[in-house]
Prior knowledge:
The chain is mostly helical. Helices cover 54% and strands 5% of the residues. The chain has a two-stranded antiparallel sheet.
Amino acid sequence: MTPEDVRDVTFSRALLSKNSYDEAEVDAFLDRIEATLRGEDTLTPDDIHDVAFTHPGVGRRGYTKDEVDTFLDKAAATLEAR
């Protein structure tokens, strides 16, 4: 995985807020992953595994949990392989 892969990833928006993560929180964390891959931040695989995002709130849609979780697993594996 490259920094560009992180920057360019897109996620579907979930129909129900309970099955989704707040988009702004996920985007901010992806920025940190991208920076780590560039050597500008110090996230560890454990940081990625331990991150917790909130739900977007009633009436708001967010990123689909399963897609985000799968991508984060790949990001953590990339950092573990370094």
